[in-house]
Amino acid sequence: MSLFKVRDWWSTTAGGEEEFDQGCMCIANIDNDQHVSDKIITGSFAGILRIYSPKPEWREGGTSGAMPDDLLIEQQLGSHIIQVLAGKFVSVNEKSHLAVLQSRKVSVYEIIVTEGAVEHGNQYQLKLIYEHSLQRTAFCMCRGPFGGVSGKDFLCVQSMDGAVSMFEQETFVFSRFLPGFLLPGPICYVSRTDSFVLATSSWQLESYTYQNLAIATDAPKEESQKISSGKRVSATWSFNLGQAAIEMHVITFPSTPPSILVLGERNIFCLSDVGKLRFMHKLNYNPSCMVPYRTSSEGKVNYLVASHTKTLMVYEDTKLRWASQMNTVPVVIRTASFHRLRGGIVALDERGQLQICYLGTDPSLFVAPATESRDINYEQQDVEMRSLQKVIRASTKSTDFMVTTGEDDLELAAYVSDDLDSVSQAQNIDSQDGEPIPSISVKISIKCKSPIQSVLLSIHVLPPLAVTKSLFKFSAVVETTMIVGFYLSQPGVPADLNAKAVATYNTTSGAPRVVVQDITLPLQLVMKPVPPSRTAMYKITLDTNKAPANLNSIFPDLSGENSDGSGQAIGLQVYGNNQEKPVVTLLASRNAQRYRIQCDSWECMWLPIRDLMERLRAYYKQMHSKPPIQIWFSGNMPLQEYFAVVEDHFQVRLVRERHKQLLSERAAQFRAIQRRLLARFKDTTPAPLSNLDTLLEGTYHQILALSEACEETEKQLELTALNVASATKLLCTLIKLAHKMSDKEAGILEACLSSNVHDEQGWEESTDAVLTHMLRTCLSKSYKDLSQLAIPQLTIPTDTSKFRKHVTLLCDRLAKGGHLRIGTEDSETVVTASEGEVTDDGSSLEVPAGSKFGERKAGKKLAGEQEFGVSPEQLPPVVNKGKALTSLSPLPEGGTTLSNGTNGTGAETELTVDAE
User: Fold this and answer.
1) Domain limits for position 474
2) Mean pLDDT in the chain?
3) What secondary structure letter does DSSP report for 490?
4) One Pfam match, by short name (predicted)?
């Protein structure tokens, strides 16, 4: 018996295979019994009405189940029941009657009690008093003394299309449409202000007075619900909830100020009856229903909240006073008083499980016996204490918390094939020259010591790489194997060749587990061997402490037939790359310990450089060469080449924003023309259209053209984002090699210059903010910069000048001995800036005059170029094929021309968007 579990006082099942919702239960003395005992009224979607009167004194043996006599009435009403309410709905008397709302009618019933003369007791009958047919499908209703009457209750029915219909007992009064209606929501009546409060689909509460609803009409007053015109109804007040409302209650208890209690999906709101927020409480669970209750606390709001975790919470304002576990998830919960239970909790779930419960425990009659007094042996107590302290010290000595392998652990492994697939799995993707895109198979195996249920395996890879199947579900698994294929799904150079296989499951004890396996894809998946190029626009030279190795031995899978026999030059080309098919050439020096990588596309050099360094380290490690190979970069930092790639991406972002702005303006213009035309067509005296139809058609064609331009810009943005990611990784690698950074410093640098290019928030401005912070902390030139830290606003800039200045200054300060450190030692690193630098404002960081990171002419011949053994005459000629996917060129008037290659007929197609 637990204090934290509700006690079952009475329970039953209201029907079988029936469904119930919030309005399907109410509590009232519906038979007008003189003992004033509450009855439980339920109505199901199957159309069955039931009335219960729990009588605990009839229970035998202490059981909590319902007796047959507890069910007073069970009757089929024809159609499904939406809501039941009890109130004074008959004009001839003030007794309680039952109102039942169905989809197309609302009926009022009276409970007739016939006293029995035999032991079976009284007889109860359901008598129809009157009913109103509804012209619209009903959603919910509320009751109250509308208009300030006394001793009577009227009904307000809300329909699915936003009309509220008022019924003054046996008489229909009027119907009104609510403004801005989309979907119905909860509604309640506040008697103090004589107004209706309802939750709208725009996640707001709106209040309408009964008087405004009654007078807001131009239609002739007649007994009809068919309305189509009238004055616009205005709300007296509104409140923004910011979430959907589940349930609403009006609190009119004497000890509590008049309030409106709203249960939202994530919060509980308490407002005054004039729409002022009294308090709000954030929930960390998913609520299902709520009910306020009366207490003796002055000025406090007390209420119960049930959750989908079968928990019942008791709140006083925003404080949680108690929590108890329930057996079901109720959809409606109420408080009631019965013969021997005052303040019982009545709960009904969606399947008809009806329960009356209470909090606390039954009193226990057990009395603990008196304890036997005995003397304390202090010596024995000291010995026991010392032994326990030894156990504690032994258990706290080791700080190594290793996860032991259990019986329900899962092992995940991935095996990458050595060769490409003979038949490519990228069936519908071809490169520009008609050559099929290759794919490679990866075998993923799962092994378990014991069967594991519900295992989910997902494969994650960054674009433009793709996988044939990314999700596997297993109901039970012991050992299994999957084979998936990886391939290039779209044009572009990937910035990373790593994929991840992630398996998620639950152990037998219910604990969640995640197993991650890294998959490294080979370079031959995205690049193919081609003849080396004799010239190139961009060149990077890497120095080593070892004699140059034979490139055919370093790249046995990519040397191909096009490499020369000496192994001093190989050429690589990206599959499906449509940027005029750039060729990456790798050259090994004859008489110097250096390698050169050259290409006409700067970002395409990243993957070959990364692969070259990894293969060189593995090659010399396999040869057991001492000392180990060291690689560094001693040339000028190619910042201008990097800035050109970033500038292309930024210009595409500007074009996209301009296209979105123009599309929004044309859409607004299109809607305005539609409204004008609609007003002309509705006018009883036709007026000339004044070329509005021509303007509408022209605007429509502009919207179509701008939509196509937005799609093309999005494709171009994805391509430039891939280029920026590759260029950023290449620049970080060169900075690391140039300054011989440690792994920790390199990690900080890669976090500052992130290769995760995202366009939702803006990569340029977010990266610039990180660089500004780094320049004012661990790379600050004085202690004054540490006190000028501010959080910048991440808005799209007008150009990339600040970004270029900050990257240049970062490289310059690292070249002068600066270090990237995070921690208390950051303030000890002070880099002396050269003349001309201004760092008081982040926007005025200038490039020092004569800095070695200044502009470098593209394709400039590097020192020592004659050392490379392959002469230009020995290299085969280069044939450039293909055409650029998209090009952006500014117009003189400020517009932008978006070029999309050829249109299939050989002619180049352009879409010009005027800046006006």
Assistant:
1) 410-519
2) 79
3) S
4) PHTB1_N
